[in-house]
Amino acid sequence: MTDSSRRSFLAAAAAVPFTAPLATPLVAAPRGAPRKRKILVLGGTAFLGPHFVRAAQQSGHEVTLFNRGKTNPGLFKDLEQLRGDREKGDLESLKGRTFDAVVDTSGYVPAHVEATAKLLADKAAHYQFISTISVYGSFGERPDTINEATPVSVVKDEDVAKVNTIRQSMPFYGPMKARCEAAAEAAMPGRVSNVRPGLIVGPLDTSDRFTWWPVRCDRGGAVLAPGDRDGHVQFVDARDLAAFMLRCVEEQIAGVYNVTGFHGRVSMQEVLGACKCATSSSVELVWAPEEFLAEHKVQPYMQMPLWIPRDGRSVVDCSAAIGKGLRFRPIADTVRDTLQWAKAERGDKSFARTGLPAEREAELVRLVKALASK
Ligand SMILES: NC(=O)c1ccc[n+]([C@@H]2O[C@H](COP(=O)([O-])OP(=O)(O)OC[C@H]3O[C@@H](n4cnc5c(N)ncnc54)[C@H](OP(=O)(O)O)[C@@H]3O)[C@@H](O)[C@H]2O)c1
């Protein structure tokens, strides 16, 4: 896969004793119930953030949000909201505050993560940084297995020094996230969970990189399906990721964890089968060989969501996170909830960013069928 096409779909402890006091005293919680925590979320109002916040609230934790108040400002009116702007270095509202854990879903720039992790190092027991599997330069390049020991991409110091906004960080997304991880770990050694998700899917996901399939199948008719049916796909439901994040926070689990499903391989056919079963529309899956798609210049991942050609289809090993409690809901649940949300909240917008225009898809379906009948 070329660098630019890869970028298009990637747009992936040392035990040091901790002496800072916990924000919440260590009083015994009822048996089986996690102790109530004071959790600061840096961000919290777009996609992953709300799923994490709801999971934390449901478990009885006290959540404070820190953001600019621009994204979904009406959300979480019942929570304490601290205002500030990481891009302007405005962290005033965080000063003097104490938390059990910080969850950083909005860090893309190493200097921003360094600033918040240093500021809160003596004020919080645990820092969780949401990174990405895009830290691995080999992801999407080779059909290798990637685990947490696989080397991460590097970016030059001079490029890091030039970047101060999220937008500026995007051309170096993966390596900048790797530097953010390192900045958090340097500020709070042994007290950081660096969580590396793959494609995050489910309700509230406006990227349509998964949503396309349930919505397209619901529209019915002949659906162009990519490549080999048995080819594996990986993604994680935002709610399963949020549950794992919360577990790390509650149990102060430090370390680096890949988080993208599932345990064992899940094929494209299994995912599209679930989409077909989630709708009352009549759906015919028309499988186009990879060579056909390449010949007709169908772009992997954005025009054929979830599809990565065989020669670049890496396998991301998530066994470390599974060992610490990561669990996956059935694909059918993810598909059903995503479809329900997309129909209620997005309407035709689910076709705006990904997939093929209807006429082009119909033309390719006709060609695939003609080839098959020869
Ligand atoms: N989507 C995927 O498939 C995927 C895959 C792998 C990893 N990830 C990672 O997962 C995370 C998910 O992000 P999300 O957007 O869903 O998180 P989120 O916490 O739901 O939303 C982002 C938050 O950041 C805040 N924010 C943005 N700019 C800010 C600034 N300059 N200062 C302070 N706050 C700011 C936004 O609020 P305001 O705008 O109001 O400030 C918003 O609350 C990201 O770190 C991403 O790299 C995503």
Please tell me about this protein's structure.
- The chain has helices at residues 3-10, 48-58, 110-120, 157-162, 166-169, 173-187, 212-219, 238-251, 268-277, 290-295, 319-323, 331-345, 358-373; strands at 38-42, 62-67, 80-83, 99-104, 124-130, 145-146, 192-197, 200-201, 221-226, 236-237, 255-259, 283-288, 315-316.
- The protein has 13 helices and 13 strands.
- The longest helix is centred in the C-terminal third of the chain and has 16 residues, at 358-373.
- The protein is of the alpha/beta class.
- It is globular, with a radius of gyration of 21 Å.
- Strand 4 (99-104), helix 3 and strand 5 (124-130) form a beta-alpha-beta unit.
- The strands form 4 sheets. A 7-stranded parallel sheet has the order 3-2-1-4-5-7-11, sandwiched between helices. A two-stranded parallel sheet has the order 6-13. Strands 8-10 form a two-stranded parallel sheet.
- It has 2 domains: 3-203 and 235-259, NAD(P)-binding Rossmann-like Domain (Rossmann fold); 212-233 and 265-311 and 331-373, no CATH class.
List keywords for this structure.
disordered N terminus, 2 domains, alpha/beta, Rossmann fold, binds NADP nicotinamide-adenine-dinucleotide phosphate, seven-stranded parallel sheet, 374 residues, two-stranded parallel sheet, single chain
